[in-house]
Amino acid sequence: MKKITRSTVFGVLASILLLVIGCTSNPQKRDTANSNEAMISQEKPKHYIMTLHGIRGNAVSFGDFHTLIKSHLEKIDPGYEVIPLNITYSVAQTDYTPEKAGREVIAKLSKMVPVLNPLDQISVVGYSMGGQVGLAWYFESLKDPAAKKYADHLKHFVGLGAAFWGAKEAALGTSDIDVLRNTIKFITIEVRDLLRKESQQYLGSTLTQGLISIQKYSDAGVDRLLKNLKTIEQLKKFYDENIRTISAVNISFNELVGLSLGGAPATTLRLGLLSSPTSLVKWTTIAPLVQCFETNAGAKTEGCDDFQNPVFKFINDKVNKPHAFGYKRRETDNAVITPSGNAQFISVLETDSNYEDGHVTNVTQSKYALNPAIHTTYFTEALHATVVSADQYNATVKKLSKLGDSWTDLAEDVVLVYNANCKTETGADDFEKCSKHHSYKYVLKAFADCDRENSTCSADGQKNVLDVIANKNKIADGQKRLQSELHGFTVELNMRLPSGYNLSMFNEKTILNHIQFETVKTNDQVFLQSSLNADNQITIAREKELASVLIKKMHYSNEEQLKVVMTGLFIPKNDKNYDYKALENGTAISFKVDLPGIKSRVINAIVRPYHSTYVDLRMATKDGAK
Q1: For residue 177, what pLDDT is reported?
Q2: In the prediction, which pLDDT does 22 show?
């Protein structure tokens, strides 16, 4: 039997914890546009574009984005001098918080741009963890008198695969030891059993036995490793000392905590967005999605029904549908699910602890965090990140293309953009070619903002550059198709409980005894009873779905917080007639929160595909203690 080495176990645990919370890293050198000389000109107002990388990013994480965006925007809008600012912050910090990284950005921005003129504007593109850091920078700037001018000049914020409200994968390893063990069990036992029972006919006996054998080693090795890790603090210490230092990982435990779905950092940022003045900022969410392995001709129906070979069908039917977030497709870029990567969310706030037992929260209390008029969402089919050089990336795509068009598309990266994407071999602009990049066109459209009042965009620039790269008709058609395939949402509860309240009685299984939905079973699936209408049914906290219920327990000096995140899906009664347009205004769901010794609440809230619904509840004991 193959010996389990320490490095093997480390690698297995790291892959379970991290999966693919990746970030781009490209060793190509390029000239940045943030030199002091570029900032001296006083002829035009400045449009500063600040890029913030992800969890393992560095100074070249965006490829040639900075030079391209400067060239294109200045052609579209000659009224502004565009100055990209590629700001990095420290990674793999054991004391990381989004606020700490945000203050680091404040310090660097203050040196790069010591003076702002009245007409200058700032735009941010935050990729992955950079979305969290960008939000924290904004809120920290508002609190700092010396930095507030930068927040006041913020005009556009683009989230590019941003983990605004966290990621499932990070939460699996940082929420609770039992959750971690259950995750390992799923990966090493249930998936292994699926392979044993189902995949041999597709993958062949030799390959199937090889996969099962690898997972057996992982199971045994991780079991030995976890026996002595009985608390999250023990896991944190072990992780930072042994796993963070592996060069392929280079991510601290606190960074995973910061990126955790339902975690305290994401809650703080949500509350910041609800309480801070953001009405003058335009927000754009660019949410990547994993493509379907369709035939080269495309699917026969909307969704993932027509596959290049039976292996893809097996993966979709036996793994993605029951175990992953999504219905027809996996509604994630392999790191961030669509609701947690969407800057827009629906909020329900109940801050009064003097409520009657059984108090009913009216559905009218569900409100958007951002005015819908200042927020735009775009979906794009690409992976979260490619941690390779441009040459390696291009070689990979070339090899994958031999397997079919959808394999080539699957390799596309959401963030990296190179001159080769937007120029001919002679270096001339090729705007039509540039339009094929999965996300660049949406960033360009957002920052050009030619529909704004008193726009200085030129007619020629809009027609010859913007309209070619960001073709309105193509974008509209593509967005309609992707929207029609998205069924998922999340409900996140932040329950504020009296100090000293015992949270140890709750785990991801028992919590559903206290968050009570009225359900009905139809064709072996459990749906919300209130969702039984003519068109759609709603399922939430699916038993088989990995991390469909996540809990976090937080202790503060004045209160305990119990956070519960549940993922749900809209399931059409007729797959061919999923009326996604009818769901744009959301749908009401109802559930009761009934914790031992605590006055209960009945919550009526709005849920909507690719949105999260954040419910903040101040709870009180039945004897009146707060």
Answers
A1: 74
A2: 40
Look up residue 207 and give its two tokens.
Answer: 């390959």
Contact 363, 588 (CB under 8 A): yes
Q: Phi and psi (nearest 5°) for 558?
A: -110, -5
Q: How far is CA 33 from the centre of its chain?
A: 29
Give the domain ranges of the chain. Answer: 346-374+487-618
Which residues on adjacent β-strands are paired with residue 289? 381
For range 286-307, the mean pLDDT = 69
What is d(CA 597, CA 516) in angstroms, rounded to the nearest whole number?
A: 16
pLDDT at 387 over 60: no
Q: Which residues contact 134 (CB under 8 A, 6 or more apart)?
A: 50, 52, 102, 105, 124, 126, 157, 159, 162
Radius of gyration of the chain (CA): 24
Query: How many CA atoms does the CB half-sphere of 255 hold within 13 Å?
Result: 26
Q: Give the per-residue pLDDT at 215.
A: 60
Concatenate the DSSP letters of all residues of 271-329 into one string.
Answer: HHHHHS--TTSEEEEEEEEPPP-B-TT--SSSSS--BSSHHHHHIIIIIIHHHSSBSSS
Residues above pLDDT 90, as percent of the chain: 55
pLDDT at 99 over 90: yes
Q: What burial class does residue 149 get, using C-beta atoms within 10 Å of its C-beta: 0-12 exposed, 13-18 middle, 19+ buried?
A: middle
CA atoms of 246 and 230, how far apart (whole Å)? 23
Alpha-carbon distance 212 to 191, whole Å? 9
Residues written for the chain: 626
Higher local confidence (pLDDT), 123 or 56: 123
**Mean pLDDT across the chain:** 84
Instruction: Give the number of other CB atoms < 10 A from CB of residue 472.
Output: 10
d(CA 108, CA 331): 36
**149-153 mean pLDDT:** 97
| Cα 292–Cα 131–Cα 21 angle in degrees, nearest 5 | 50
Tokens 């913007």 label which residue? 466
Nearest to 550 by CA among 284, 266, 357, 262: 262
Backbone angles phi, psi at 57, to 5 degrees: -80, 175
Give the contacts of 191 (CB within 8 A, at least 6 positions apart): 215, 319
Helices within 187-246 (DSSP H only): 191-194, 200-203, 205-226, 232-238
pLDDT of residue 37: 39
Q: Which of 227, 160, 149 lies closest to 24 in space, CA to CA?
A: 160
For residue 553, how far is the Cα from the chain centroid?
Answer: 22
Q: CA distances (Å), 617 to each of 353, 358, 381, in order?
A: 9, 13, 36
**If DSSP codes are grouped into helix, strand and coil, which group holds residue 159?**
strand
Question: Given this model, what pLDDT does residue 532 score?
Answer: 55
The H or E element containing residue 473 is helix 472-483
Least confident of 63-67, 203-207, 328-332, 348-352: 203-207
Residue-wise pLDDT for 542-595, tens only, equals 988 888 999 999 999 999 999 999 999 998 876 667 788 888 889 999 999 999
Residue 550 to residue 14: CA distance in whole angstroms:
20
- Rounded to whole angstroms, the Cα distance separating 42 from 9 reads 58
In the chain, DSSP finds a helix count (H) and a strand count (E) of 23, 19
Instruction: Give the strand pairing for 359-361 and 282-289.
Output: unpaired
**405's tokens:** 């068009």
Closest-CA residue to 46 (of 84, 86, 75): 84
Residue 319 predicted with pLDDT over 70? yes
